[in-house]
Design goal:
The protein is mainly alpha-helical. Helices cover about 75% and strands about 5% of the residues. It has 3 helices and 3 strands, in the order H-H-E-E-H-E. Strand 1 (about 250-255) and strand 2 form a beta hairpin. Helix 1 runs antiparallel to helix 2. The longest helix is centred in the middle third of the chain and has 191 residues, at about 45-235. It is rod-shaped and about 265 Å long. The termini are far apart. Keywords: Membrane, Transmembrane, Transmembrane helix.
């Protein structure tokens, strides 16, 4: 915009200069003027009219020339005024442009400073934010570390408390188990001692009863043996020329009803005929009488046989 106005001002200035040059030329011609016409007195009216016409033409020409000069002067003045106005406007435009450029430069400088200040402020704010975040992270780290330490301390304390309680329970359990074991061992020992004492008592009683029973049985068996010997003597027939004073051991196998199943002379009567006679008497005496006490009965029994009552 400013360059366009400068160009217009320059053109107008040239126009004004050319106009002034043209006016100067016309003015020079007017000053010189046409050569004077010498008046000649003639009597010809046509000449007077011609002269009058020439004078009128000259005056018209002079008037037109003056009008042209005035118009040219006015135009020149207008052009000069316009040129001056254009120059003034150009100066104003230049000053405005300079002011605008200065303002733009000031604004740009201010913007640069503002931008630098903003960048600096942003950097400072970012720095402070980074420091705040860093401090927050450090605070969180310290809090986490403290919490971790507290948790570890609490865990160790709980573990120690649990260990103490476990050891206490274990000691109590061991003491209880030991007491129970000792009580059980004592009870078992007492029960064992009592059982052993009872067993000894029963054994002694059984031994006594067995001894008594055995005595009764032996006594019953002895009596039964005498009964058997007496029954055999009833069926014994003395072989001819055999002595009557002898004794021998006879082993018999009896059935439960007293039937003689076998007989054997375990200690000889003194001779084979006597042994055979005793065996024959045993077989003839079958079935043998049973003892009054059934417990005195034995299937295998040995008795001493003699022909008289002397061996009874």
């Amino acid at each position: 915009m400013f360059e366009r106005r400068s160009l217009i001002a320059a053109v107008l200035l040239h126009v004004v200069l050319f106009s002034l040059l043209f006016i100067g030329t016309l003015f020079h011609r007017k000053m010189n003027g046409p050569p004077p016409v010498e008046a000649v007195l003639v009597a010809d009216p046509r000449a007077a009219r011609a002269e009058q016409l020439a004078k009128q033409q000259q005056e018209e020409h002079q008037r037109q020339l003056e009008e042209q000069q005035q118009q040219a002067a006015a135009e020149a003045a207008q052009q000069q005024a316009e040129a001056q106005a254009a120059a003034k406007q150009a100066e104003i435009d230049r000053q405005q442009k300079a002011q605008q450029e200065a303002e733009q430069k000031r604004v740009q400088e201010q913007q640069r400073k503002d931008k630098e200040a903003q960048i600096k402020a942003d950097a400072e704010r970012k720095k402070q934010e980074d420091e705040r975040k860093k401090a927050e992270v450090e605070k969180q780290r310290q809090e986490q570390e403290l919490k971790k330490q507290q948790d570890e301390a609490r865990r160790q304390q709980e573990a120690e408390q649990k260990r103490i309680e476990d050891e206490k329970r274990k000691a109590e359990a061991e003491a209880k188990a030991k007491a129970e074991a000792e009580a059980k061992a004592k009870a078992e020992a007492e029960a064992k001692a009592k059982a052993e004492a009872e067993k000894r008592r029963r054994d002694q009683l059984q031994q006594m009863m067995a001894a008594e029973q055995q005595g009764r049985i032996q006594q019953a068996q002895a009596s039964w043996g005498q009964v058997l010997s007496a029954r055999i003597r009833k069926f014994w027939i003395r072989p001819p020329a055999s002595p009557t004073d002898f004794q021998c051991q006879v082993h018999m196998t009896l059935a439960t009803d007293g039937t003689v199943q076998s007989v054997q002379i375990t200690s000889s009567c003194g001779s084979a005929p006597l042994d055979r006679s005793v065996e024959a008497a045993v077989l003839k005496a079958s079935p043998m009488p049973l003892p009054p006490d059934p417990s005195a009965f034995v299937s295998d029994i040995s008795i001493t046989f003699c022909p008289g009552a002397a061996c009874q």
